[in-house]
Amino acid sequence: MDIVLLSRLQFAITAAFHFIFVPLTLGLSVLVAYMESKYVATGDKDYLRMAKFWGVLFLINFALGVVTGITMEFQFGMNWAEYSRYVGDIFGSPLAIEATLAFFLESTFLGVWIFGWNRISPKLHALSIWLVALATNISALWILIANGWMQNPVGYVIRNGRAEMVDFWAVVTNPYAILKFFHTVMSGWVVAGFFILGVSAYHLLRKNETEFFKKSFKIGATFALISSILVAFIGHFHAHEVAHTQPTKIAAMESLWETTKDAPMYLLLIPDPKNEKNSVEAIGIPGLLSFLAGKKEIKGLKEFPPQDRPPVTLTFVSFRLMVGLGFLFILLSFLALVKFKEIEQSTTLLRILLWSIPLPYIAAQLGWIVAEVGRQPWIVYGLLRTSDAVSKAVEPIQVMASLIGFTIFYSALGIIDIYLLSKYAKKGPEPKEV
Amino acid sequence: MEFQIIWFVLWGLLWAVYFALDGFDLGAGILYPFISKSEIDKKAALHAIGPVWNGNEVWLITAGGATFAAFPTTYAYMFSYLYTPLLIILFALIFRGVAVELRGKSTSEGMKKFWDFWLFVGSFIPALLFGVAFGNIFKGLPFDDSGYYGTFFSLLNPYGLLVGLLFLFTFIVHGGLWVSLRVPEELANRALSTAKKFWILQAITAVLFLVFTALFTNLYDNFIKMPVWFIVPALAVVCLLLTGSYIMKNKNGSAFLFSFLFIIALIFSGVIGLYPNLIPSSIDPKYSLTIFNSSSSPYTLKVMTIVVIIFVPIVLLYQAWTYKTFMYKITEEELKEEGY
Hints:
The complex is a heterodimer. Chain A is mostly helical. Chain A is 71% helix and 8% strand.
């Protein structure tokens, strides 16, 4: 197999695996911090038990997020040396800033939080988890500034045979990056909201610690509803930005082949990339696509040479599913909140919520597929092709070996993680002190 | 001063701080299965590094990130040339991180043994291989402008392995001293006596390192050109001797301090010898990756300098605060409660 494909596959697998843990960390850190602050403010011991119970699940998840994150930093140089050399003048900075501003804060204060229960004052202890939550979300900002630059390169010139930064402020305030940051972080908060809803539903169905889990349920439902509305709302403007800066991606997201004015959106659509058309187009809503993209005329894929187009079917299907799931999250969290008062009786809803735990994870993964597959064949949109970015000094056999290694090793970690999470989730909180 | 030189110093400093801090975590991870006689002992040893190991590891991530930001060409070639060893280090660090964090979440005896094994492996391999990697960088890697001619096994040459052993023994001593400072007395005594034994090995490899560096590398050239810099390796030697003399007197606090300073001085001795190279080419110096031919643009270096000047002191402050908070003797009662 060729080295570009192997390297892409490895990056996709390691990034997707890393992003199983990141979204939950983004949201759950905030929620645990909220619970602990509630305890500090009210003295209600239930909130302390809550912070500890959800905190353990947070820690198990966090451990895997951190270790799989190191892989990402290493891989840019290991597998994508030509990319790193060509764009390092710009791309390296946000990564280094992420480590300096966020990783130190996150890791240091997580240590303080785990070991500090009896060593520092309750206020300082609550502050330490807030710092973890803040740092985690700041870390998302910087990595998405880096990724945003790959999607919409700004603030650079081509000089000395590479891209060199000339405007740091433009890189940091890249609208693409900022929109993507909020969209991604909110999707992580949805994951956390549904995680709490699902685990609470499990215990409510078994009439276990009802009061405790009703309180948790309410926090989860409120959080899930607000963030799932926000993720859709920001997603709408993010799509405008994509339409504005990445014409091939938006066309692939909608499988639009011909340039169209007031483009309709077909609820039922099956792409046929071989023949450069859609084999099925039905139930069109006039003008909806143009509205969603924020553009009157949308360029079709045929405007671009085939070697400049992303894989259409994967981008399209991922986008559709993500959007569909996004609406489902609003509906489910709305129902959860409306039925909250007698939620113990709504066993069907509780069951649905329990089984919905994986859905926001899937939606987040699909979003990344849209973002990264939809950017192809470019590694930096319009500037550097993925095929020109791979390391020259690495042999295919090395990547094959590391790919197999990662697959086996990560599968084992995944199993251990799910086992431990479900063990501690099912176990429930520590009993009340008498 | 040129930004490249500032960043060269920072680059050295990040590595030095990383090894001086995470070095004792790695050492503790190697030692703890051997000096513990009970589950309580193991918990105590892990508790000793628990609050700080993760923050320490970030110095490595920052060293990597800084290499990327300041010297992208070096980052690109160093990481792709050293693909296999870095992959092994990466896997090892993942083992360690997962094992440290999840060991305490596992209840069965078998799972605990499983994590003990991986924590040991995950500490041993990076301790050795970081030394091997630096040894080979000191020596120079076989590359020219058309590519790299080495393999994983060519890195395991006698000089590379010697530096690997020096790092390994240094971290074992460093880890033993740290553990001895934090755990209950009986275990602390075992940790200290292990550090004593390994200090002798450390001293022997350090002497061999001084000799063989003259034979296998060009590191001494810069010192001969400007003898004033000899003060740095001389300080390293003094710190190493003081570490030993305090260990023998059972003064583990002072011994740890000098072990810490030894690591900083050791790394800076290497860095001074390398200047202006980041990775010398063993084929011909004209291919070497230097701080001048592999750096980012002056603009990027300026931006990054501002970021570092503002934020690294803040990091140092709060990390120092956590060390102050957790620099106490762990009690037996505490180990029965929470943490790992």
